[in-house]
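worker-03 picked up job from queue 'complexes'. Input manifest follows; two sequence lines, order preserved.
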Amino acid sequence: MDKKSSRIAFGTMIFFLILLIIGIQMNDVAVVLSKAVRICLDCMGIG
Amino acid sequence: MLRRWIQIAAVFLSNANWKFPFTRNIYQGELKAVCTPGLNCYSCPAATGACPLGAIQNFMAGVRPSFTPGHPHLGLYVIGFLGFIGSIAGRMPCAWLCPFGLMQELIHKIPSRKFAIPKVLTYGKYVFLALFIFILPLMAVDEFEYGAPWFCKYLCPAGTLEAGIPLMALKPELREMIGWLFYSKLFWLGIFLLWMVFSKRPFCRTVCPLGAIYSLFNRISVFKMVYHPDRCTHCEACYRDCPMGIKFYEGPNQTDCIRCLKCLNESCKFGAISYSLEGFAPNRTVRVRTTE
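worker-03 finished. Artifact:
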């Protein structure tokens, strides 16, 4: 594989890792948790 | 065989709350903040993680109100999580870690006449991704500016199977709320279950927005499939065995390739298929086998 495709692969990985860290910093984890611990009536088809 | 064991392990790790028949409720521990890489409804009574698709839709549905108090939640945690996995492995989680994918493969083993899926239908998953995961939850809002998780609400067969049916059994009070929406979701679940018998992974190939997200990374991920045209005889053994109905020789990193490695490990006898990891030694496993 050439250097360009390696750079794209690792650049993409770093970019999304940064997004993930920013999301954690913005307290997105608590939002996910608050939704996931409640029964989702929409998911069941009765929401 | 290794893949099957990893798939089974993933099912049990994603659904490790086996106390649910006694608690008659879903798991509510802190692990639920962690997204699972595969499609696994977080309202399944056994689920121990969060469904990334459900999480993204909820972020999209709540983006507008979240701006009002000045703490916008854009869902970067989930988008970053999926992008990070996708940029490493592409669509590999579909083959190795998705409980719904495993179910489709097992149901397809039921003896019957088998049918190919027209190529045009495989673009449907991108329409579902754009419309049902992003645009409609973001744009179709109520008077309080909240949207709805459209994919979960109107279509997701995993939600019906893993959450709807078990929770109806566990919580009789919920049965009084059943309406046309539940029956329409049951209908779609039935359609997909039937389709799984006749075609390979129909949900993954035509509808799954999670597979659509991962598929965008197949060509640029760290893990890549490699094709050796000089060794290929076009015998189509890879095509016959492929759970996604792909002709590998038409392109080694097509968007529908889930990197199950079946073609490499079981189908190709000529060493025409291998894989590489960007930044590491190329073509790490070029396997050349004879047929005697």
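worker-03 released lock.
The interface with chain B takes residues 1, 5-6, 8-10, 12-13, 15-24, 26-33, 35-37, 39-47 of chain A (CB under 8 Å).
The helical segments of chain A are 3-25, 28-36, 41-44.
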